[in-house]
């Protein structure tokens, strides 16, 4: 099972301070998010592509430097992924209280269904690390066995300090999720390459 984070690159005001990052600051924060993903042992960093405000990554291939395309295999060799935002604090109510103003003003899902309605019907998870683990482990019941779980952690104007705190907590729960989901995956279901397996392969002489 692969684990990683993704970003949609939104330039959104922080509703608690009123401050808005510049596009340059937002891109620098995204790069820091990518390096943090490697630091905590995640397998994937992904970015969306948008061509309209308030999003900066109009060309992720340019921003990331290189894009390599490999041919598709058969259906049962496909790498299937699922993504959703998480926001964690040790106490679930603290997470809800802190995240609510960001949710309410988010360009993707603000000003629509309530935070509670959204967490009930989508992969969005706001709560304690234990609640994130519990909900993530239920996804295979709805979507089948899949190989890539991506978490959105920097959307809706969250400050970089908070995002990096989220990444640290993610680094603590991913080993639990990896162990639990790998144990449940049938042997015939393809697995996605992980950061560890790619590093190991790079050390094997050709």
Task: Describe this entry's structure for a reader.
The chain has a single domain, classed as TIM Barrel. The chain has eight helices and five strands. With 206 residues, it is an alpha/beta fold. The protein is globular. It has a five-stranded parallel beta sheet. It has helices at 23-39, 60-64, 92-104, 115-121, 129-136, 139-143, 160-184, 195-203, and strands at residues 2-7, 44-47, 81-88, 125-127, 148-152. It starts with a strand and ends with a helix.
In a nutshell, what does this entry contain?
The protein is an alpha/beta fold and about 210 residues long. The radius of gyration is 17 Å and the shape is globular.
Compile the SSE list and pairings.
Elements: E1 2-7, H1 23-39, E2 44-47, H2 60-64, E3 81-88, H3 92-104, H4 115-121, E4 125-127, H5 129-136, H6 139-143, E5 148-152, H7 160-184, H8 195-203
Parallel strand pairs: 1-2, 1-5, 3-4, 3-5
- Tally of separate domains: 1
> What is the annotated CATH architecture?
Alpha-Beta Barrel
Rg (CA only):
17 Å
Determine the strand fraction and express it as a percent band: 5-15%
DSSP summary, beta strand count: 5
Helix content: 40-55%
CATH fold description: TIM Barrel
Provide key terms for this protein.
206 residues, alpha/beta, 5-stranded parallel beta sheet, 5 strands
